[in-house]
Here is the input.
Amino acid sequence: MQSIEIFIQGGEIAEILVATATPVDSLASVLAGLERPIELHEQVLIFIEDAHFPIDPATAVEELLPLCADEEAIVAPLRLHVTKCRHVEVSIRFNGEQMKRRFAPGTTVGRVHHWGARRAFHLTPRDAAEHVLEIVGTNKRPDRDVHIGTLTGGAACSVEFDLVPRKRVEG
Amino acid sequence: MEVAIGPDEAVFRRHLAGGGFRSGASAGRWRAVAVAWPYAVFGVSAVDGVEWGLRFDCTDYPRTPPTARPWDLDRDAPLAADRWPSGASRVPMAFNPNWKNGSCLYLPCDRQSIEGHANWNNEHPSLIWDATVGIVHYLRIVYDLLNSGDYRGRNVA
Here is the structure.
């Protein structure tokens, strides 16, 4: 049976974890089969990347991927987020203004950046691409594929960013 | 007979097997083309669909930052200077064939370029080599450049 790659992020997971599963494996069994198993209980929620609502841990992997008559042809990986946060409160500061919005914890930094730069602060596509999200009070600029829920550290379900220009490297 | 690998190569291969690298590879952002230690060739995708080759020298990885030069994936040779990526400002600074004879990228995460640039530690802390993240850190920086508003595609000779 085809093996499917699964990438897992979470508020208490330091790095992106990788698992492989068959199409009929449940999410719960995938998480339980990790080198450091993730135990599910009432407070732990599973999200699909960029999706708004948590999903049932009993859901089979194949039910979360595009329907494919030839299961050997399944090539898309599954990207999950495991968390205790149902939402993450995001704030972004730019040019003396601050905008706030709630996101699902499995939302990528790339999507949050798109909202902040294009929708909240109305930058042109080119200008948006020349700005990056930096966590307030640090020099950390999380990669675009990082889930916003990983930046909460698993404690408060919130994260604050500055939208800063990418500087030219010189001198 | 199994050939033993050194600790630097072992860490490098562990980073390639990690979620950060594999997630980016799965999303089509980069791929490992070949590893012949201490050299490793990668392809990095640009916003216009062009795949740019980079050849890294990873000697003493990850304690010492790697250094990378643009690489012609078809010819398995250094990329001709007139075919390097072009851009408005940040890209041509990073991809400057006149810097160190084209042997590296002008980036704070590059072993050769960081020499003599202590000021970059304060000016570009997010671009300084991070041994805990490893090769993915360098690849992300290059990917961001090649997918930025500054990038203008391949130089036309």
User: Anything to note?
Assistant: The two ends of chain A are 55 Å apart (CA to CA). The beta strands of chain A are 4-10, 13-21, 45-48, 78-83, 88-94, 97-103, 131-135, 158-165.
